[in-house]
């Protein structure tokens, strides 16, 4: 049984040194060769089965009859199945754009195309269909020029991040790596995995994963976003796969949903689901919004099921998917838009 964030039955997870193991057939329960557990974990990590689902951001106006059903950022590999935008910008009445027009600015459709939304022609169609907002107002007329430095532009509720100096990264942290940019004890840390082009950037890691925990860790130089994602008032959900001993007694799920008394107060999970089991082990998926230190491990300890292995698969709308362990990837514009919206930006 191996809760692994990789897809396609590759079944690789990190060992103490962070180096992934190769899958082996006929492995013992709980080992890398447990194909059933690896496949189920990978399916949950990558959101398999949802391909082709079209989400337009909740409150966005429907395209006109006969218009192309174009999807913004349709060429991006990640972020295609993130669902409706959470907390989309408020949509006001259609506006001719005159009060937002900047004669020295850039044409709106060109800004959108440069941000990777779609071709300029398709962007023009999106504007005419009422799917584009500038500073909270729907724009339906072509010709608007905007100040790229100050304008807030959203397509189907997905805000565009137009500041080129902003970085939004996902790191698949292996086991044995500490969640710091530098470690005085010489342990492997985040900076050991950053490529040269990011080495001199002032990046924040959003929250922490303890040294033994694997999985998704967001990195950014957007201080406001990092603060909001970690602030308890925004209640950003996080999804984990937990391997523990089995079989698990009935009632543990309800106990965790109702709340478990810990030394720093009562904590409960938002969702609890048994993914699979083999003799002596179970794999559980839990969702919770608490950001307390080592909260998942402490919860499972409190109910008598110490964590054997822990992988974080998702933070807010961002999923680990099939990203390789130890790798870092740049979030797409669609993912960034969903992430900003999840904390009211």
UniProtKB/TrEMBL annotation:
Q: Where is the composition biased (Gly residues)?
A: 8-17
Among its keywords, does the record have RNA-binding? yes
Q: Which InterPro entries match?
A: PsdUridine_s_RsuA/RluB/E/F_cat (IPR042092), PsdUridine_synth_cat_dom_sf (IPR020103), PsdUridine_synth_RsuA/RluA (IPR006145), PsdUridine_synth_RsuA/RluB/E/F (IPR000748), PsdUridine_synth_RsuA/RluB_CS (IPR018496), RsuA_PseudoU_synthase (IPR050343), S4_RNA-bd (IPR002942), S4_RNA-bd_sf (IPR036986)
Question: Where are the compositionally biased (Basic and acidic residues) regions?
Answer: 93-104
PANTHER family attached here?
Answer: PSEUDOURIDINE SYNTHASE FAMILY PROTEIN-RELATED (PTHR47683), RNA-BINDING S4 DOMAIN-CONTAINING PROTEIN (PTHR47683:SF2)
Q: What is this protein called?
A: Pseudouridine synthase
* Entry superkingdom: Bacteria
Recorded hits in Pfam families, A to Z, give: PseudoU_synth_2 (PF00849), S4 (PF01479)
Its Enzyme Commission number(s) read 5.4.99.-
Record keywords: Isomerase, RNA-binding
| Domain RNA-binding S4, first and last residues per copy | 106-163
């Amino acid at each position: 049984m191996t809760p692994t964030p990789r897809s396609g039955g590759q079944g690789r997870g990190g060992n103490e040194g962070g180096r992934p193991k190769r899958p082996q057939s006929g492995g013992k329960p709980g080992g890398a060769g447990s194909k059933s557990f690896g496949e189920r974990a990978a399916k949950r990590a990558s959101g398999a089965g949802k391909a082709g689902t079209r989400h337009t951001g909740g409150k966005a106006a429907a395209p006109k009859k006969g218009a192309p059903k174009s999807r913004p950022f349709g060429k991006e590999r990640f972020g295609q199945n993130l669902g409706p935008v959470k907390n989309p910008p408020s949509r006001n009445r259609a506006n001719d754009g005159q009060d937002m027009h900047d004669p020295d600015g850039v044409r709106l459709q060109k800004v959108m195309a440069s941000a990777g939304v779609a071709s300029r022609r398709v962007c023009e169609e999106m504007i005419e269909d009422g799917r584009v907002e500038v500073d909270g107002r729907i724009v339906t007329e072509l010709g608007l020029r905007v100040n790229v430095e100050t304008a807030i532009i959203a397509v189907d509720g997905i805000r565009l991040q137009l500041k080129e100096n902003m970085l939004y990264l996902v790191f698949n942290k292996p086991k044995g790596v500490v969640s710091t940019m530098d470690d005085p004890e010489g342990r492997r840390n985040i900076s050991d995995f950053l490529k040269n082009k990011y080495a001199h950037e002032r990046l924040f890691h959003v929250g922490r994963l303890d040294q033994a925990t694997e999985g998704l860790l967001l990195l950014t130089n957007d201080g406001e976003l990092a603060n909001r994602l970690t602030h308890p008032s925004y209640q950003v959900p996080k999804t984990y796969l937990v391997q523990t001993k089995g079989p698990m007694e009935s009632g543990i799920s309800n106990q965790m949903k109702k709340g478990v008394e810990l030394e720093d107060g009562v904590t409960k999970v938002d969702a609890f689901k048994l993914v699979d089991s083999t003799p002596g082990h179970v794999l559980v998926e839990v969702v919770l919004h608490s950001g307390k230190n080592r909260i998942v491990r402490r919860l499972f300890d409190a109910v008598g099921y110490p964590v054997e292995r822990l992988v974080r698969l998702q933070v807010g709308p961002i999923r680990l998917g099939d990203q390789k362990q130890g790798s870092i990837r740049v979030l797409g514009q669609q993912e960034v838009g969903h992430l900003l919206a999840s904390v009211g930006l």
